[in-house]
Design a protein that fits this description.
Blueprint lengths: L1 H15 L3 E8 L6 E8 L2 E9 L9 E6 L4
Antiparallel strand pairs: 1-2, 1-4, 2-3
Length: 71
């Protein structure tokens, strides 16, 4: 759910921004044909549309956070 993800990302960025050295991911939102690419450093982030998912291709989301002092 894009709205819930945006809220989650805003909260993580607000709470842990200075400690987030790098984060990235590939995201799948239900009903959206595009895969979404997330890249961020501290409190700066971009979420851009990537190539569409191919029919039959396994869909899913993966996020990676690299930081210091994260729980």
């Amino acid at each position: 759910d894009r709205t819930r993800f945006d809220f989650l990302l805003r909260m993580v960025s607000e709470w842990y921004g200075p400690d987030l050295l790098r984060y990235k991911g590939i995201l799948e939102f239900e009903g959206d044909p595009a895969r979404w690419i997330l890249q961020g450093v501290h409190r700066q982030q971009t979420l851009t549309a990537g190539s569409p998912w191919v029919n039959g291709e396994p869909r899913g989301s993966v996020l990676v956070f690299i930081g210091s002092g994260l729980p």
